[in-house]
Specification:
alpha+beta; nine-stranded mixed sheet; five-stranded antiparallel sheet; binds zinc ion
Length: 427
């Protein structure tokens, strides 16, 4: 009897070919935009609707049943043949910033559909359902809030989010109605009765770390917490020619020293990033000593204790600088989110899947927020980062190599298969 070698009869999946299919779909999806010659797809817009119609077709072609929920999300389900099987979630956001690239968010939807299609077409039965979700609102590119699509799925959407308005005075409830949703049902999640087993989001890194490490993909361990402050420095305005240097309270010179201190404190802890991105000088004339400066501080990190320590050092240093310069400090905290930790066991499955795909497993944190932050309120989450060129995102020059998409697909497919095996082991 001849030995049946399955590897010879069923050749390896051509990941590069599947990656090129994903690439073609991403390019096609980029045509669904509110403006010509650029990608801008705000939540609940006409282009959002059109994009979902197209994604629905792709989901159906991949063997999924599709529903629209009442918060503008599209959900495609690959059902296990096992009765009452639990569900695993995948997905990312379909909305984009203005003048966006084609990968941010959308890669996580299209790559998930491709991986799920392959799982569905395999001869072995999966012991769990997979839902791929195209989340409606991650970028906050229409209403003042963000993550409302994934919050609706997690069952944490605040009903007040329905009353906020866009720049034209249209409320979210009105926008949902024109989108075909019933806003009265927007906050009802169908996932609360039987919580999903977990969530995997594939997303471009939006940073330069994987490129520096020469790696296609990486495992996200945490999504950094962020705090934002406004700091106001009050000095004395005066004539640039007549006030002696020793008698000045120059708010801008003091702020400059504070900015350098912030940078050096952040540099002293590799787990912290601090950015001053906005600075307003008044009166803002070349012959007047700056009397007042207002600047922003964005402070992020993976570990709440490190963020606390950095925050305390920064404000203590700001006060130390202010006092001899005789400037007055006022500050307010405008925003605070805690870090979100990815699930270690899902992370381990990702690690094995990455290693078996021929890539060195590498862990990193996410400096940017993602739908995974909201979904973490519902179930354990994991994220697979894909290298993007120069770390550029939110720009048309956003670029991902075909080979890296291929690796992401291979890793995801292995992950889903392994996840099935753990489901069976755990009954
Ligand atoms: Zn994104």
């Amino acid at each position: 009897m001849l030995f049946f070698d399955s590897k010879r009869f069923f050749p390896m999946t051509n990941w590069k070919f599947r990656a090129s299919e994903v690439q073609v779909k991403l390019e096609e999806l980029a045509n669904y935009s509110e403006v010509k010659d650029a990608l801008a797809r705000p939540t609940l817009s006409k282009s959002h609707k059109k994009a979902l119609e197209q994604i629905q077709i792709w989901m159906q072609e991949a063997g999924m049943a599709v529903v629209n929920d009442h918060a503008g999300n599209l959900i495609g389900s690959l059902k296990s043949k096992i009765e009452n099987a639990p569900t695993f979630l995948m997905g990312s956001h379909v909305d984009t910033v203005s003048n966006a690239g084609i990968y941010d968010g959308n890669l996580g939807i299209i790559a998930a559909i491709s991986a799920v299609e392959l799982v569905g077409s395999s001869s072995s039965e999966i012991p769990y359902n997979i839902d791929v979700i195209a989340f409606s609102d991650e970028e906050g590119n229409r209403f003042p809030d963000t993550l409302t699509g994934s919050q609706a799925v997690a069952g944490t959407l605040d009903p007040n989010a329905l009353t906020v308005s866009d720049s034209e005075g249209i409320t979210r409830a009105e926008a949902l109605t024109s989108f075909g949703c019933d806003p009265a049902l927007a906050c009802n999640s169908s996932y609360l009765d039987e919580r999903p087993l977990g969530y995997l989001e594939i997303h471009i890194e939006q940073g330069p770390v994987l490129e520096r490490e020469d790696l296609s993909v990486g495992i996200v361990t945490a999504i950094n917490g962020a705090r934002r402050f406004t700091i106001s420095v009050g000095g004395n305005a005066g004539h640039a020619g007549t006030v002696p240097m020793s008698m000045r309270a120059d708010a801008l010179a003091a702020s400059a020293e504070m900015l350098m201190a912030i940078e050096s404190i952040a540099k002293s802890d590799p787990g912290i990033v601090a950015t001053v991105g906005m600075l307003e000088v008044s009166p803002g004339a070349r012959n007047v000593i700056p009397g007042h400066v207002k600047f922003s501080l964005d402070l992020r990190g993976e570990n709440p204790v490190s963020i606390d320590t950095a925050q305390a050092s920064i404000f203590s240093e700001i006060n130390n600088i202010a006092s001899p310069r005789q400037v007055k400090i006022e500050w307010s905290q405008d925003y605070k989110t805690p870090p979100t930790f990815c699930d270690p066991s899902l992370g381990e499955l990702l690690e094995e899947s990455i290693r078996e795909s021929g890539v060195m497993p590498f862990e990193l944190t996410s400096g940017a927020g993602h739908d995974a932050v909201a979904i973490a309120e519902l179930c354990p989450v994991s994220m697979l980062f894909v290298r993007c060129e120069k770390g550029i995102s939110h720009h048309p020059s956003e670029a991902v190599k075909l080979n890296d998409i291929a690796k992401a697909l291979e890793v995801t497919h292995r992950f889903l298969t392994k996840f099935g095996q753990t489901c069976l082991r755990n009954g």
